[in-house]
Amino acid sequence: MQQPRPRVIRNDKEGRRLVTEWADGRQGEIDWERLRWACPCAVCAGEMGIPGRLASVTALTDDETTLEQIRGVGNYAIAALWKDGHDTGIYPFTLLAALAFPEE
Ligand SMILES: [Zn+2]
Predict the structure, then answer these.
(1) What residue spans of 1-104 are helical by DSSP H?
(2) What is the per-residue pLDDT across 50-94, written as a single tens digit (0 to 9) for each?
């Protein structure tokens, strides 16, 4: 499988979403809320068979779904800093592409 390459990842604070553009010309948006629910870190998603926090809650707070900042991690992922201080979520480009284009 080909590794998806983002050309632009922009944090759209007014729209509360990530706007992504990819090397193949596609564009996709990811709502902040959806992005936070997809946080792949051990605290949120769990690890080694132990469920994470997201498995035990049905709603997230405003702060938890407000994306303050993103930064690049190597050439394969971005890290997200949320308003509640959560910053351990590393989103690989493959995950971002899956979130941006869920129908594929
Ligand atoms: Zn997390």
Answers:
(1) 32-37, 42-45, 93-100
(2) 999 999 999 999 999 999 999 999 999 999 999 999 999 999 999
pLDDT digits (tens, 9 = 90+) for 26-59: 999 999 999 999 999 999 999 999 999 999 999 9
- C-alpha 84 to ligand 1 mean position (Å): 11
Domain locations along the chain: 6-100
The alpha carbon of 70 and the centre of ligand 1 are apart by a number of angstroms equal to 14
Give dist(CA 2, CA 16) in Å, integer.
29
**Distance of alpha carbon 68 from alpha carbon 24, whole angstroms:** 28
35 CA distance to ligand 1 centroid (A)?
10
Q: In angstroms, what is the span from residue 45 Cα to ligand 1's centroid?
A: 7
> Cα of 73 to ligand 1 centre, how many Å?
15
Under CATH, which number does the domain 6-100 receive? Answer: 3.30.2020.30
